[in-house]
Recover the amino acids of this structure.
């Protein structure tokens, strides 16, 4: 048990809960709110808007391509690390980009608000893609800012608070949009939701430039920009065991992703009503997820990073098994409640521990670019496998054996991380963001 965990153990549960009230985790909550709302604007909210405008179902589902830009963000993430903005750059590298990215999101959402999909569906599609590009850029800056304002001891709690914020932002934007659209129309709804970019922008202005931020170079010239492009890759792969760490990033969530994107198909096959799905999957699942985030933050502080990540991987693997049991049991409210509750609790817990570990992998000179690469790599394999094989596997094996298979597929990620812990590779793979230093001492003094 490390020093932080020992301090928490001796101080009881209050010592584990208290970090949620510190300035940096509260800032992470505000950042998460602004991160979550653009996703909702081109997700369920846009789907509802297009459906109410009588756009065809095939056209509506095609709009999901706007989400692909989130997986492409590593292509321009280096800009956030290496390019100093004129004038606003005096506020600091992270704060200035936070302001600009927030303004871009607000402009993109306002642009989507002012376009009538019935009159020009192509322009609406382009506007949705622009929201995706702006939202992904905002995410790049927000993730870098979050990691750099948090001390290593706060990474778990900060990740949890950020996810709380993301849920509030995405769900809140969806609810606000529906309420306003019912009374004043979709244009007013989208324009109102654009203001949800403000929490992150105000956080940057209030909290200021992260004390832990490290500049790539002393001067901002072409050499600095080139270093911002290739530096994140070189620095990461110079570490001992980097390829093994990358393998873990790529495979750790395949089983979970493969299972998650098929749940609604299972519910339909088991003849659950829309009311039942709304109550259990949306309602119960939401609260189970929030509880999982809170417990994950507390146990991360008590158990330390390595044990909490390993425990999270085991929980997420077993949660797939719960859906095999539901599929075998058939239409069962209790079975659905148990499976959904356990799945969302595990996802919340896992999100805290795994995101904290991935955050700790970054180097403080390349926080934006490296975290964008890591987060994109963490989801891309699971999404590709799901999109190309999930339906065929269900048809071939049936739901029970399919979810048993997803449980088995999750096992290599668990075993690989266990080996990484035992061999000491986890400790050796940590970047400067996961190591306490002088910047953390100054941060504590200024808190």
């Amino acid at each position: 048990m490390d020093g932080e965990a020992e301090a928490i153990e001796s101080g009881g549960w209050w010592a584990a809960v208290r970090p949620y009230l510190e300035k940096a985790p509260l800032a992470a909550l505000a950042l998460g709110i602004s991160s979550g709302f653009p996703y909702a604007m081109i997700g369920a909210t846009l789907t509802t808007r297009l459906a109410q405008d009588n756009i065809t179902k095939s056209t509506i589902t095609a709009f999901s391509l706007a989400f692909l830009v989130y997986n492409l963000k590593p292509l321009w993430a280096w800009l956030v690390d290496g390019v100093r903005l004129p004038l606003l750059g005096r506020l600091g590298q992270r704060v200035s980009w936070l302001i600009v990215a927030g303004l871009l999101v607000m402009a993109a959402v306002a642009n989507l608000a002012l376009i009538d999909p019935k009159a020009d569906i192509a322009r609406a599609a382009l506007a949705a893609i622009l929201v995706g590009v702006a939202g992904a850029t905002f995410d790049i800056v927000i993730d870098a800012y979050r990691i750099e304002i948090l001390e290593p001891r706060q990474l778990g709690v900060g990740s949890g608070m950020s996810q709380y914020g993301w849920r509030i932002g995405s769900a809140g934007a969806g609810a606000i949009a529906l309420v306003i659209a019912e009374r004043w129309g979709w244009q007013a709804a989208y324009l109102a939701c654009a203001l949800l970019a403000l929490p992150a922008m105000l956080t940057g202005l209030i909290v200021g430039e992260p004390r832990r931020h490290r500049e790539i170079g002393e001067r901002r010239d072409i050499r600095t920009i080139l270093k911002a492009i290739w530096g994140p890759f070189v620095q990461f792969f110079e570490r001992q065991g980097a390829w093994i760490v990358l393998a873990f990033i790529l495979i750790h969530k395949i089983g979970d992703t493969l299972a998650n994107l098929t749940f609604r198909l299972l519910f339909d096959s088991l003849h659950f009503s829309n009311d039942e799905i709304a109550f259990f999957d949306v309602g119960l699942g939401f609260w189970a997820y929030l509880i999982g985030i809170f417990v994950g933050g507390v146990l991360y502080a008590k158990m330390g990073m390595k044990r909490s990540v390993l425990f999270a991987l085991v929980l997420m693997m077993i949660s797939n098994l719960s859906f095999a049991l539901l599929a075998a049991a058939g239409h069962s409210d209790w079975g659905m409640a148990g499976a959904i509750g356990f799945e969302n609790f595990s996802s919340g817990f896992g999100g805290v521990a795994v995101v904290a570990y991935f955050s700790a992998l970054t180097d403080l000179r390349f926080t934006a670019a490296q975290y964008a690469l890591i987060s994109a790599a963490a989801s891309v394999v699971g999404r590709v496998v799901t999109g190309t094989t999930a339906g065929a596997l269900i048809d071939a094996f049936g739901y029970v054996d399919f979810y048993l298979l997803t449980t088995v597929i999750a096992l290599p990620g668990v075993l690989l991380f266990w080996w990484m812990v035992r061999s000491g590779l986890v400790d050796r793979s940590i970047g400067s963001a996961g190591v306490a230093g002088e910047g953390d001492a100054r941060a504590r003094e200024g808190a």
In short: Confidence is low (pLDDT under 50) at residues 1-10, 438-447. The chain has two domains: 21-210, 226-447. DSSP finds 22 helices and no strands in the chain.
